[in-house]
Amino acid sequence: MINKNLTNPKIWIPSVAVFFLGINSISGQSVKAKKDTLKEKELEEVVVVAYGKAKRTSYTGSVATISSDKINNRPVTNITKALEGQVPGVQTTSASGQPGSTATIRIRGIGSISASSDPLYVVDGIPFDGNLNSISPNDIESVSVLKDATASALYGSRGANGIIIITTKSGKKGEARINFNISQGFSGRAVKDYEQVNTDQYFQLYWEAMRNGYRSSQVNDQQAAQMATDNLVSGTGLGINPYGIKYPKPVGTDGKLLPGATALWNDDWRDVLQRVASRNQVDLDISGGSEKSNYFFSLGYLDDKGIAIESGFKKYSTRLKINSEVKKWLNVGVNLSYTNSIQQAPTSSDSNTSNIIQAARSVPSFYPYYERNADGSYVLDAAGNRIYDFGKYRPTNALQNQNLAATLPLDKNENKEDNFSGKGFLDFTFLPELKFRSSFSVDLVNYNGHYYSNPLIGQGTEIGGSVTKSNSRTLSYTTSNILTFDKKFGKHHLNVLAGQEFYKYDYQTISGTRSQFSLPYYYEPDAAALLGSFSGNSDKVSLLSYLGKVEYDFNNTYFISASGRADGSSRFFKDNRWGKFWSVGGSWKISNEEFIKNLNFFNQLTLRASYGGQGNDKLLQPNKLPLYYAYQELYKFYNNLGEPGAVLEKARTNELKWETNLNLNVGLEFAILNNRIKGNVEYFQRKSQDLLFNMPVAPSIGISDFPANIGTIKNTGFEFSLFTTPIRNDDFQWNIDLNLSTLSNKITKLPKGSILTGTKLLQVGGSVYDFYIPEWVGVDPGNGKPLWKTISTDANGNTVEGTTSEYAKATRTLQGSALPKVTGGLSTSIVYRNFDFSGLLTFKIGGKILDTDYTSIMHNGSAGGRAWSAEMLNRWTPENRNTDVPALSTITNNWTSSSSRFLYSGTYARLKNVSLGYTLPSDYFEKLGLKKFRIYIQAENLLTFYKHKGMDPEQALDGTTYYRYPAMRTITFGLQATL
Fold this sequence. Notes:
It holds the Pfam family Plug. With 979 residues, the chain is mostly beta strands. The protein is built from eleven helices and 45 strands.
């Protein structure tokens, strides 16, 4: 029998539950539970929510919290990259591994098509407009994610896509404390690049492509073979012979390398353009407090080199936070932070030939870094130094006249930023239950971009070098005045909030380009003679808001809430300027009911539900830049033979109005087995209507598109989180947490049947990222040509399916969505005496990725000199007819055009973080005045489990690769000390 103090005798507890309870024996004996492993106060956890705090168990909204121990000391430059896999319903995508880059975050799906779907970031209670790189992870106390209407409606239009609240550390009452953290890390690629053919294989394959290209009715097979042998190196061939003068024609007419032919060098460009990078970080903070005040001061330094040469991110940061009770009725606080950052960022995210990531992949290893003699030895200059090989002999597809290893150290690709954020507040206490807070926040970002192409070597020599300098200044401020009333009346509790807020955004930018440097090693525009361009603009946005909230609970069991907010946005015409947003919510703490208490099973059981509406005014242009004046008539200005002129760019759309998000949330939170198992299950439905959309129009009208309110999107899904403590005693503690979420994204209304945007099709019933591309059928076993599906209608109206080898005749069809079906994370932490270990595994299930990076090295031979994937070894030949790689030829067959052939599953798992630490026993360091001394080793992006080798599965949300900087695997060693 189970002890009645532990559970109701009518309820059977399986043996696995006994394990979680820590029971000593169950063999026909009464058992005694150990002391509760989780304190009751953990269930009464206070979470940061909109304009205040709340107890988790009584809160009617959906909020998830990430504690500082899951963020601090992670080897990430940007806080957004520490959120993946931590919270259900939050999809985090780190499309670029460039140090200093920001991850893309979506909360509960994609809320818009043309408008922004980014969440609102709130730092210490006030919306934040600065660069997230300016917030040091070591300064963060906690992160709260607000996901439903009740949680975020008080922020109105600014919280339409969810809210991420970052709370920075404050000093605590007691003796001053000094924390010091230093770490040294090393980084490399998290995923190996695509496997390529070697030099011998390449020459034989390209000989085959040339022979097949020469074949015609006038040229027989023998003649074509001879022509391929004769021209493989010279003429229209590869332009180089790595086999030396002994083998002037290294491949015979049989397509095989001549006996004894051996490549004299093998220069993998990935080795010279990429590296093992270093990462150095130092953080120091001093904090303390008394009965009436507290302070926190921090200094930070980070030098994060990138794996691509001449890339990296360096940052200096400081923060000062002071809170003080000046009078019994007055509290004041200030929070000041400043960050100076320098990012070295060579092109690494598009198809430009200067993209260092793509260049490292594109040039085969038989093209050398340095000029070579015919015998393979290096060509030396008069001083005996090696001479960089710029490949003037290389075909265009092999990046002719380019050597980034030589030019990048002489060029500049530099972004400098100064971020200042200042916050202050005054808290007035009129009565114990009546308080007023007035706060002010300012964010100032000053950006300078400096891009320089040297005039000595490389492509810059054609124009005598060039320089582009740009500067932008972003100033935004928010003022808010909030009055709160909080009172208990016996079993009744009432909380009322009312307030006003004003937001102002001011952006200015200027940029210019000059060329023709008369002297080398001068980087500034003044040293260049020819003015190329000069541009500049400014933007201003204002938002005035009024807000209110009422919360009531009875007997700490029944809770209801209602909130409302009105936003007036300068983005809309005066007749549509104001948007009204609201929410209602309720929760029932069922575990407080006697019939649940009598079960002696649930430590916590709460049912909650909410519904509400929010707005979105953040329309983007097709190039994803903000559109601040969507309703106004906008013009472009041109110079026409010295005379100024204006051309219409945007038509007036006074009828444009707010995009609206309607959010439903139903959740159940529970805790059982003496709080050893806690969990939360939620269902959400998020409906976005009156979508802000850039409607394309016929070019004959004179404009490309116009903003309009069209269509409806619905996101639905389930979220599940589980927190368990299988073991906890004086020496050992083991926690296992799991979270996952599902997502279904559907377009439910459009103004017309469908809208085609690139490789995506928007139509009712589909998602915002549905691939609409030809379906790959395979390779014709008879002739080796590629085949795509065709769908047509015969004279009788019947659908007829066929195939074609002409890509232009292929029929586009829906090929799945880029959005994953399930995302989540599995984490564990173990503490054994002085040792601590933690690990985080993130995963995504479902979704598709169109790998256009891969196609660049999958050409059929028409891109001579471009590197080739090892998959080309399985190309079609008369002896290898059953394959999905077409026959080779120097005549293009368009087989690498977008189709389902290069559409891969997005399912993957990644061991995101692993950490192992040891805290020295106090006997070793207390004589030195230290309170704690810990050494640790940790790894970020340690392992990736993914089927399509060579591609990093963390790609853009739309599921299309774009030659991006790969994720980095970072191994870090460090120590922490507390005085």
